[in-house]
Amino acid sequence: MEALGGWLRQVVAAVLLAALIDLLLPNRTMQRYVRLVAGLFILLTLAGPLLSWIKGDMEAKLTAGIEWAEREPAGGDDGSQLEAILAEAKRIGAGRDEQAAKLAVAGLEAGIKTVVEQEEGVVVEAVEVTATPAADGALTVERVKVRLADSNTVIAAESDEPIAEVDPVSPVVVDIDIGADTDKGEGGDRAVPAAAQNAAGQADDGREGRIAALVAGRFGIGTSKVDVYGASGG
Amino acid sequence: MDILQIVGIGLLTAVLILVIREQKPMFAFLLATFFGIAVFLALIGKIGGVVSMIEELADRSGIQSVYLKTMLKIIGIAYIAEFGAQIVRDAGLDSIASKIEFAGKMLILVMAVPIISIIIETVLGLLPAGGGA
């Protein structure tokens, strides 16, 4: 009942307001237009409960719409509009910078992948570049991770440390005992893959160091920032 | 007493304009414009009183403030457009005056766009999906 009373009061106030507006008009030329708007307001007040029931945010939508209608023909004569435009420009600029940074990082990743695959003849599974924007808007590369597809070793190449020297191959002693052929043959078979794996690991060490140096040399990134991982590493 | 002053100044300005118009039509136009602005500025305080009274009334009746603001803006647009059109018409440029009135009408109609859109959206929302069929 109270809501009905409030609605009725609003309707009466809207009609009174429309009558007052009609009275205040300077001449007849604008009368039709003002009557249209006043009539719409009365209609909106009459259908207010229905509109609120169908659209919960009717009032907010109406306020936003009228603010838009006021702002649009004003032509930027108040400071708030200028601030809004500046804020919008700042937001768009930030979005564009972010997009440019993403594009640059993606290009760098693709470039590193191509160079490593061409120069070293290995399959690069993924290249991950971490870059942070500096104060002047330029990007600073923080970390480059190169993940190889066919290696099991993990190497973090450091710029200050020289690449570890390859240990000389230790002499392989093959003890052949013909008499115990059937018993020790299995042990001998085990020894050969171990040695081969060791050699392969050293080869990987050298290759990953070379990749780090290659990336550092080609793209001007410090070798301390370049990490090369095998497929299962990291 | 304000009305007496305004009418007095108006009569004086009219006489002055009639005298000057023969010699310098430009000054006559400027005088008319100046008188219009002076009357408007003299009455601005009274207009403020009326507006505050209407605002209080609307506040007490619980009507949405956006309605009142829009209505007052419409009145302002109508008065300013009429004022400008009359000044230009006094200068003998009826076509420019009608353009000013046209701009006023359009700006008043722009105020109605959000209301119309909300009403149309609601009516379309009431219809069942694919209501045209």
TrEMBL record, chain A:
<feature type="transmembrane region" description="Helical">
    <location>
        <begin position="6"/>
        <end position="26"/>
    </location>
</feature>
<keyword id="KW-0812">Transmembrane</keyword>
<dbReference type="Pfam" id="PF09581">
    <property type="entry name" value="Spore_III_AF"/>
</dbReference>
<keyword id="KW-0472">Membrane</keyword>
<keyword id="KW-1133">Transmembrane helix</keyword>
<dbReference type="InterPro" id="IPR014245">
    <property type="entry name" value="Spore_III_AF"/>
</dbReference>
<protein>
    <submittedName>
        <fullName>Stage III sporulation protein AF</fullName>
    </submittedName>
</protein>
<feature type="transmembrane region" description="Helical">
    <location>
        <begin position="33"/>
        <end position="54"/>
    </location>
</feature>
UniProtKB/TrEMBL annotation, chain B:
<keyword id="KW-0472">Membrane</keyword>
<feature type="transmembrane region" description="Helical">
    <location>
        <begin position="6"/>
        <end position="21"/>
    </location>
</feature>
<dbReference type="InterPro" id="IPR014211">
    <property type="entry name" value="Spore_III_AD"/>
</dbReference>
<dbReference type="InterPro" id="IPR025664">
    <property type="entry name" value="Spore_III_AC/AD"/>
</dbReference>
<feature type="transmembrane region" description="Helical">
    <location>
        <begin position="106"/>
        <end position="127"/>
    </location>
</feature>
<keyword id="KW-1133">Transmembrane helix</keyword>
<protein>
    <submittedName>
        <fullName>Stage III sporulation protein AD</fullName>
    </submittedName>
</protein>
<keyword id="KW-0812">Transmembrane</keyword>
<dbReference type="Pfam" id="PF06686">
    <property type="entry name" value="SpoIIIAC"/>
</dbReference>
<feature type="transmembrane region" description="Helical">
    <location>
        <begin position="28"/>
        <end position="54"/>
    </location>
</feature>
<feature type="transmembrane region" description="Helical">
    <location>
        <begin position="66"/>
        <end position="85"/>
    </location>
</feature>
